[in-house]
Amino acid sequence: QVQLVESGGGLVQPGRSLTLSCAASGIPFTYNHGGWYRQAPGKQRELVARIAGGSGDVTYHDSVKGRFTISRDNSKNAIYLQMNSLESEDTAVYYCNAQGRLSGRDYWGQGTQVTVSS
Question: What is the pLDDT of residues 61-75, one digit of tens each?
Answer without folding.
Answer: 999 999 999 999 999
